[in-house]
Specification:
The structure is a homodimer. In chain A, the strands form five sheets. In chain A, strands 3, 7, 8, 9, 10, 11, 14, 20, 21, 22 and 23 form an eleven-stranded mixed beta sheet that branches. In chain A, strands 16-15-17-18-19 form a five-stranded mixed beta sheet, sandwiched between helices. A three-stranded antiparallel beta sheet of chain A has the order 4-6-5. With about 475 residues, chain A is α+β, with helices and mostly antiparallel strands. Chain A starts with 14 loop residues before the first helix and ends with a strand. The radius of gyration of chain A is 25 Å and the shape is globular. Chain A has three domains: about 15-275, BirA Bifunctional Protein, domain 2, CATH 3.30.930.10; about 295-380, Anticodon-binding domain (Rossmann fold, 3-Layer(aba) Sandwich); about 400-479, Translation Initiation Factor IF3 (2-Layer Sandwich). Chain A has helices at about 15-25, 45-60, 75-80, 85-90, 115-125, 170-190, 240-245, 265-275, 305-315, 330-340, 350-355, 375-400, 410-415, 435-445, and strands at about 30, 40, 65, 75, 95-100, 100-110, 135-145, 160-170, 200, 215-220, 225-235, 245-250, 255, 260, 295-300, 320, 345, 355-360, 365-370, 400-405, 420-425, 445-450, 470-479. At the A-B interface, β2, α2, β3, β4 and β5 of A face β2, α2, β3, β4 and β5 of B. β5 of chain A pairs antiparallel with β5 (about 95-100) of chain B.
């Protein structure tokens, strides 16, 4: 019989089963919806994702992005304007062909991403250098008829995300935008959500369809697979030529704008938050995005009044609930630990007589006994340390996972250990494809790319072809 | 030549042109997207709608609704489960028939509303009376392939809305939910957004497809047409039978649940906010949902430093921006009045020398001169009065618009004046349809329904058939 009380799979031993159990038992999403690859997001994930949206949007607005909302449908002719983009996305497009009983003359795509929606309006909105940099974003659902196997949150057919689309006067400004996007990713994904990652420049054969350069953050799962998180793209001028987006520069000349685009997928980032911080007990939410921050458990009915009084004080600065359910105290303790609530207050009569309180901190997984009068001060102190503790732990796990390798044998060994292999490589342009294919065939892992912030110079030879190594690349398995 | 500087149409004289100008000149939405009936929402509307979402969601959560997010696609077979619902919505459904090159065996509907998505999960989630009332909501985009003429914000093919879906143990509880929904509408739509409305129970021939009883809030446009705002429905047991949603009651018996559903459409409510408060100068936003609350205009460059200092103080409690654009001061004044910013600070050197400040209040459309040291206190005071002033004005306009009528001639006259006609009517059940059709044919107006809070008893005879009047109904033109 299935143990309904808690997570029974071990995260390190059977990650896949652990992840599925967490999704189901913590009620993050119901997987039984009758269209393949689509989830029913439940309150516990929706509440956290709402906060995640808020943090991303605040930072984007502070950096000058203006919120828009574009139609979810895009005419086929828009997608066709840029051939690489069409080729890259058309196998994945959900097509709307009919309204009521009426067949459309032109099919509508359910947006897989919105470049081709935004750009036709950029064509109308951008006139002069005064309009640039033109920085937008939208909060939206996007759709991919994935041909690969879907996985809850990690690869789904409807994705909850943010997409930013910007136009710039020069290539340099576009590149600065890409660097700003990387920094935004650090500010939010790492410093608030506590998810470590490496930003790679993707090799030529793995770029966003239509992009000149693609940079993507890879986060790591305990099974050693990386999962692509936000990516930012130098779309450069392919699209501006296709959509005829010109501006009059200071010198009076008409020029094509340079495009960039950045896409943090909230529902997929949520998966990394769950995966990175969770443990064998269940979820562990960073304080800032926890759906609930404090749970109060009155161990005796006589403590109910005190519970209400504490709730009143705490709710002035944190979200708080009292668990009045019929479960035994032990079950309640386990329940809230599994649900990843940062602080639990166990209200026992013995403590109360001594004017003491027992707090459970999910960051350190330990109980502390405090004086009742110190409660507010203590919660406020914990709230400031909480996410830092989670980040410290996550960073440590991540750091140990990169292994230097000198040949295919060492790469294989590193990948088998669940590490990211680092090595010399001939070329990340199209001519490097054969070597990358050999690596993939022999190890099941992919060349994820190079680092902009790489500190060492490539030494020696390509691990595969023995030609001069022009790059240091990172190799990992992915989903 | 088009005057680009401001609104040239008069709201009362040419409402339709006024509304279009406000949308375009205030940059609420761009109407040039290349799919009919779809808008590109621009920052000025998106920022306000985000706040509108926040207020609705806060109230819903406080009243015990849990946020969910369901797939945007619904299999055709779900829609088919309840025949009235299918009949009502299928002419309006966007159908997805293809993923990439692959034709689907079963068509997917792009959700026109999500009853048939939620209910199949309710079937899995609801087991016992302990689970009830089960109260959910989602923030979502929905799609209607409208056969009627579309109008920006008022009737579009993609709608930004909230939908709540609830299951209850008894009909009484379901009816209490409907009353709660009406109250939520008052709390948010009227008391925060300042939009007056009347909640009508719709006649039998105008119910939500599949509903037992439908209640809908009608707001009023200056051209005398009403626009349907949130509606709440006693779905009752038709759907629970169709989706087999049963619960075990306290008495051990298996019973069908009672459903209710409520749908505030944020993008359409936004239209009523614009229409109700706007004037010949342009927009007028309630303080709480203004995309920007305070605009500072330094009339001389020497005032820039002071502007920055004031901004720093104000941004602690309100959103504020300084207008450094190249326009002349007069143009800037007009611009921010048109954009509906509640408070404008005109920073002139003469005022500053005397330690004075000139504030423009958009609620009263007047300038006030205050002591510099009183600025924060004054803004805080205005922020508390602002929306109340807007509400008072809006309520007054609305109140005068209901006319008692005794025959078709009087109804015609009332409708011609842009009023809502009130009269005795035979029946709001199916047998009243012929009389309603006569009214519609002769006046172009519809029977909007009866009021739950009607104070008088129906007297006399039906205005059309002269049979006994069983109801007092309200008649108005709509979109």
């Amino acid at each position: 019989m299935k143990n309904k009380q808690g997570i029974t799979a071990k995260k390190e031993e059977n990650f896949s089963e652990w992840f599925t159990q967490v999704i189901q038992k913590c009620e993050l999403a119901d997987l039984r919806y009758n269209v393949k690859g689509f989830l029913v997001f439940q309150p516990w994930s929706v509440l956290a994702m709402e906060k995640m949206y808020k943090y991303f949007e605040e930072v984007l607005q502070r950096k000058g992005h203006k919120p828009h909302y574009f139609p979810a449908v895009i005419p086929e002719s828009n997608l066709k304007k840029e051939s690489e983009h069409l080729k890259g996305f058309s196998p994945d497009v959900f097509w709307i062909t009919q309204g009521g009983n009426k067949k459309f003359e032109e099919k509508l795509a359910l947006r897989p991403t919105s470049e081709t929606a935004f750009y036709q309006m950029f064509n109308l909105w951008i006139r002069s250098y005064n309009d640039l940099s033109f920085k937008t974003y939208q909060r939206a659902n996007v759709f991919r008829h994935e041909t690969k196997a879907t996985r809850p949150f990690l690869r789904t057919r409807e994705i909850l995300w943010i997409e930013t689309h910007c136009a710039h006067a020069t290539q340099e400004k576009a590149f600065n935008q890409v660097k700003e996007d990387m920094n935004t990713t650090k500010e939010v994904l790492h410093d608030i959500f506590g998810v470590p990652f490496i930003f790679f420049e993707r090799p030529a054969w793995d770029k966003f369809p239509g992009a000149h350069r693609t940079f993507a953050a890879d986060a790591l799962n305990p099974d050693g697979r990386v999962i692509q998180q936000p990516s930012t793209h130098m779309i450069a001028q392919k699209f501006s030529k296709a959509f005829d987006i010109k501006f009059q520069d200071k010198d009076g000349e008409e020029k094509d704008v340079y495009m960039t685009t950045y896409g943090p997928a909230i529902s997929r980032i949520f998966a990394s938050v769950v995966i990175v911080h969770g443990d064998d007990k269940g979820l562990k939410f960073p304080w800032e995005i926890a759906p609930l921050q404090v749970a109060i458990i009155p161990i005796d009915k006589k403590a109910n009044k005190k519970a209400e009084a504490l709730k009143k004080e705490i709710q002035k600065f944190a979200s708080v609930e009292i668990d009045y359910s019929d479960k035994r105290p032990g079950e309640k303790f386990n329940h809230w630990e599994m649900k990843g609530v940062p602080i639990r207050i166990d209200l026992g009569l013995k403590d109360l007589e001594k004017k003491k309180l027992t707090l459970y901190r999910r960051d350190l997984d330990k109980k502390i006994l405090i004086n009742e009068k110190d409660l507010i001060k203590t919660i406020q102190k914990i709230s400031k340390e909480f996410t830092k503790n989670l980040i410290k732990k996550a960073d440590k796990v991540f750091e140990g996972r990169i292994k230097d390798t000198k040949n295919i044998k060492e790469i294989k060994a590193a990948i088998k250990q669940g590490a990211i292999a680092r090595c010399g490589f001939c070329s990340v342009e199209k001519d490097g494809t054969p070597c990358a294919e050999i690596i993939e065939k022999q190890t099941g892992a992919e060349v994820r790319g190079t680092r902009l912030d790489e500190k060492s110079k490539p030494l020696g030879k390509c691990v595969i072809c023995n030609k001069k190594a022009n790059h240091i690349v990172y190799i990992a398995r992915s989903y």
